Amino acid sequence: MQLFPMTTVLDIWFYIRFDLRFTLLRAWRYVQPEMLKLISCIIFIELQKHLCSNNHPYHKFSTGNWDTLEVKPKEKGLDTRAELINFYDSHYSANLMQLAVYGKESLDNIQTLVESKFCDIKNVGRKHFSFPGHPCSSKDLQILVKAVPIKQGHTLRILWPITPNVRHYKEGPCRYVSHLIGHEGEGSLFYILKKLGWAMSLEAGEGDWSYDFSFFSVVIQLTDVGHEASSHLRDGIPLSRQEPS
């Protein structure tokens, strides 16, 4: 493993993180293949957003590709790079950022080094973004959606809106529940489903969270038999039915 001096590491990190020329050139080059590689995950995330309240910022489209970031903006006479720089200037502020540096140098030397590398980041006194309220209203819950997967297989995803775990980080309720549901030992939910021949894997935990809202999900990879019997897995969940249009 090649080790670099602390000053070199900080130079590289700052260049990647804050030099918009570097960021945009790399993003424009790699965004399309990355989007295609993660398309199955992106589709699910955007579907989840689409089903939430359209009055909440979470509902908005959150990913992009070459077409949405370069082609269509140019057709409308927009300069994406200029728009991004404007956003950077408006919302990036030192008072909203934190940096943790671990090294063998003394604290005084590390502090001097960090201050010299990051002193150009302006502190314009911005406040944290806040979006009070959960993106799911009562009418956005208890919905069943069936979607045709891109890859062969069957996945059952069950999501609940919850209070973000970060608000109770000392107690960690989400970690407790995720370990309880995700346990694979004898007598566990997965043990029973696997014994029935219905499931190949089961994951549970918090995902897609902010300080204002969060979701808890249980994701089960089903066998063909499990897919046929999946109605039994939903028997305890009251649902209103929503078919794809």
TrEMBL record:
One of its GO terms (molecular function) is metalloendopeptidase activity. One of its GO terms (cellular component) is mitochondrion. GO terms for biological process: peptide catabolic process; proteolysis involved in protein catabolic process. It comes from the Eukaryota. Residues 80-224 form the Peptidase M16 C-terminal domain. Keywords: Metal-binding. Pfam families: Peptidase_M16_C (PF05193). This is Peptidase M16 C-terminal domain-containing protein. The lineage of its organism: Eukaryota, Viridiplantae, Streptophyta, Embryophyta, Tracheophyta.
